[in-house]
Amino acid sequence: MLWIAATITAAAAQTGRNLAQAGLTLRLGTLGATQVRFLYGLPFALLFLALAALATGQAPPLPGPRALGWLALGGVAQIAATALMLATMARRGFAVSTAWLKTEPVLIALAGLALGEHPSVPQAAGIVIATIGVILSGRAGGQRGIGPVLTGLAAAAGFGISAIAFRAGILALGAPGPFLGAMTGLAIALTIQVGLLALWLSHFRPGAMAATRGEWRGSVAAGFLGAFGSAMWFFAFALTSAAAVRTLGLVEVIFAALLARALYGQRPPGRALLGMAVIVAGVGLLLAG
Fold first, then answer.
1. CB atoms within 10 A of CB 205
2. 183 CB contacts (<8 Å, ≥6 apart)?
3. 258, exposed or middle or buried, with CB in 10 Å at 0-12, 13-18, 19+?
4. For a surface tag, which of 14, 84, 161, 213 has the fewest beta carbons within 10 Å of its beta carbon?
5. Sign of CA pseudo-dihedral 234, 240, 242, 248
6. Pick from 281, 282, 264, 286: nearest CA to 96
7. Are 239 and 110 contacting, i.e. CB atoms less than 8 angstroms apart?
């Protein structure tokens, strides 16, 4: 049951990372803040990989074309999803945006069938119920206009694709243990992401890289939280299906509401509280199944 602890830890770290990135968006722009997650997260990911190799006494596995292909697909999908997430947060509140971003588990469950992952009836019911709870929480924010809804749902789809691809890439590595495989996959994915974004920014926004260096204090914090959260997501993906991991990860909606209350005094309305209760019920069904 290590995947449960890893997923909850990842959700908590990701909530903090999203908050840090949302603040950086105002100063660096969407793509600049997106690059922070990967550029400042890569050194931590390499450190995690070194610690995993030291702890297991095994060398990291060399990736084959299949593993590289899956990890590259996951990396590109995550870049696009992160940019869409930050654009959504710039137009809507933090807690409401987080709710719309968490509508991907049903998509993951359906796509996971291609990987031979068949959830039980209680697990499938839990995924659907928890997703309904997320939608209730998102609607409670008084959405105005279709734009933030579309970008939020598009970001959710991107994160769903990345979760499936990352799990497939980790499994394709054939590592001697799940933790070493997860840390290897994370280091490879982040290296690909940093390279792609650096090329994009140097061509289209040459001042963005210099701007991220000027915001290094906030960037290091966001980078560490992003790398640590991703390490826990990858570890959970190495242990069980992406659908189960991302459904349990919906507790991030609750974490975001608590953080918004603590930092901004934003009290969730009654419908949001109802949505969170439904999320908890769905997660309970998932774990019981």
1. 15
2. 45, 48, 49, 51, 52, 53, 60, 231, 234, 235
3. middle
4. 213
5. negative
6. 264
7. no
Backbone Cα Rg of the chain: 18
- 263, containing H or E segment: helix 251-264
- 63 DSSP 8-state letter: P
How is residue 285 written in tokens?
A: 């069904």
Of 195, 227, 175, the closest CA to residue 67 belongs to 175
Tokens of 243: 């659908």
**Which tens digits make up the pLDDT trace of 178-216?**
999 999 999 999 999 999 988 888 887 777 677 777 777
The burial of 220, by beta-carbon neighbours within 10 Å (0-12 exposed, 13-18 middle, 19 or more buried), is given as middle
- Does residue 182 contact residue 235 with C-beta atoms inside 8 Å? yes
Give yes or no for a contact between 94 and 18, defined as CB atoms under 8 angstroms apart.
yes
Distance CA 134, CA 105 (A): 11
Average model confidence (pLDDT) across the chain: 81
Digit-coded pLDDT (tens) for 250-285: 788 788 778 777 776 766 667 777 877 787 787 778
The type of residue at 272 is A
